[in-house]
């Protein structure tokens, strides 16, 4: 039996994707030292499970369906830009999630409980902050110029998307970066 690198996430739709790509192009002029997220790889992660035994994939998808059934569809808005772990030592550049953060947090909490029970997940110490990863900064020097720009980008509007499902993805590394495949879809059918 094999193992599959798996995560649970939300698709962001084409409008947000387009806005994010336009922002990446602007920021590229400021710093070349960023490995940008490819448009087709953009999504909002709920839980990264890591390597999951292929026999566990069915129970994982079933548990995600059960959790999703308890949450109603919602509207998600992406705006503002920041850096993890903090602007002094930026490693990851992200777009913020403003509307829709609460349902994402609820989904995360419920999914974490289910995945811990299945033994497919280890709790992350840093807690959950919903975000859209825009790129990874290659070195601290590359980050300096970018971070100076971030306060001016607080008003960046990435757009909104109607979220109607949670998706289980597999992730395979390719020469050009990760390739994601949809393994399961779980509709949000709560009231």
Automatic annotation (TrEMBL):
- The highest taxon in the source lineage is Bacteria
One Pfam family cited in the UniProt record for this chain = LigT_PEase
User: Which InterPro entries does the record associate with it?
Assistant: Cyclic_Pdiesterase (IPR009097), Phosphoesterase_HXTX (IPR014051), RNA_CPDase (IPR004175)
From which residue to which does the signal peptide run? Answer: none
Please list the reactions this protein catalyses. a 3'-end 2',3'-cyclophospho-ribonucleotide-RNA + H2O = a 3'-end 2'-phospho-ribonucleotide-RNA + H(+)
Q: What is its EC number?
A: 3.1.4.58
- Give start-end ranges for motif HXTX 2: 131-134
> Motif HXTX 1 in this chain: where?
43-46
Gene3D superfamilies on file: Cyclic phosphodiesterase (3.90.1140.10)
Q: Which residues form the active site?
A: 43, 131
PANTHER family per the record? RNA 2',3'-CYCLIC PHOSPHODIESTERASE
Q: What does this protein do?
A: Hydrolyzes RNA 2',3'-cyclic phosphodiester to an RNA 2'-phosphomonoester.
Any idea what this protein is called?
A: RNA 2',3'-cyclic phosphodiesterase
Which gene holds the coding sequence for this protein? thpR
């Amino acid at each position: 039996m094999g193992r599959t690198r798996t995560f649970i996430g939300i698709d962001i739709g084409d409008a947000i994707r387009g806005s994010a790509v336009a922002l990446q192009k602007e920021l590229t002029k400021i710093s070349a030292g960023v490995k940008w997220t490819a448009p087709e790889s953009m999504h909002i992660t709920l839980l990264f499970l890591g390597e999951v035994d292929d026999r566990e994939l069915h129970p994982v998808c079933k548990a995600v369906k059960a959790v999703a059934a308890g949450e109603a569809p919602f509207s998600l808005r992406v705006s503002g830009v920041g850096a993890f772990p903090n602007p002094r030592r930026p490693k990851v550049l992200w777009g913020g999630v403003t509307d829709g953060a609460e349902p994402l947090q609820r989904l995360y909490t419920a999914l974490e409980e289910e995945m811990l029970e299945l033994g497919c997940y280890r709790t992350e110490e840093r807690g959950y902050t919903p975000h859209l990863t825009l790129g990874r900064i290659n070195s601290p020097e590359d980050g300096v110029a970018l971070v100076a720009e971030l306060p001016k980008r607080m008003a960046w509007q990435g757009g909104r998307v109607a979220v109607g499902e949670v998706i289980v993805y597999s992730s395979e590394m390719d020469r050009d970066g990760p390739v994601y495949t949809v393994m399961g879809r779980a509709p949000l059918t709560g009231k």
